[in-house]
């Protein structure tokens, strides 16, 4: 029996749901990066990074490239970079909405007895 598309998508997003994996993908957006550089940038134990890279590699999102003793990782395709850019745009919009709400809340604290419309106009 085939897995429904919505379930496959959920599995995909679950696989992405680790901060180290997201950070690795962000670092790989500009091209292959040696593991030693990933370790320096992320500052985690080598075994932890290795585990997270294995998850990304098994999923097919990243590929490893060996050049002598140096192992680098790269995104398997440009769609992942586009997904990260889309996530950034979505978060920017969400946070902008939250900052507008925060401003309203702060304004209401300044003018607690005024109706909301009057409090906004008095700024």
What composes the largest sheet?
3 strands, antiparallel
Backbone shape: elongated
Q: What Rg, in angstroms, do the CA atoms define?
A: 22 Å
The strands making up the biggest β-sheet line up spatially as: 1-3-2
Taken as a percent bin, the fraction of beta residues is: 5-15%
Provide a count of the helices.
6
Helicity, in percent? Answer: 55-70%
Please provide a written account of the structure:
The protein is mainly alpha-helical and 123 residues long. The chain is 67% helix and 11% strand. The protein has six helices and three strands. The protein has a three-stranded antiparallel sheet. A hairpin with a 2-residue loop joins strand 2 and strand 3. The model has no long low-confidence stretch (mean pLDDT 89).
């Amino acid at each position: 029996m085939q897995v429904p598309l919505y379930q496959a998508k959920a599995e995909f997003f679950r696989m992405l749901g680790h901060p180290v994996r997201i950070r690795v993908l962000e670092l790989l957006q500009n091209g292959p990066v040696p593991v030693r550089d990933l370790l320096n940038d992320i500052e985690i134990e080598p075994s932890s990074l290795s585990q997270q890279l294995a998850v990304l590699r098994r999923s097919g999102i990243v590929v490893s490239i060996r050049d002598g003793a140096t192992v680098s990782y790269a995104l398997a395709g440009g769609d992942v970079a586009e997904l990260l850019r889309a996530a950034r745009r979505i978060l920017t919009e969400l946070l902008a909405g939250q900052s507008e709400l925060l401003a309203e809340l702060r304004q209401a604290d300044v003018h607690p007895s005024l109706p909301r419309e009057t409090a906004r106009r008095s700024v």
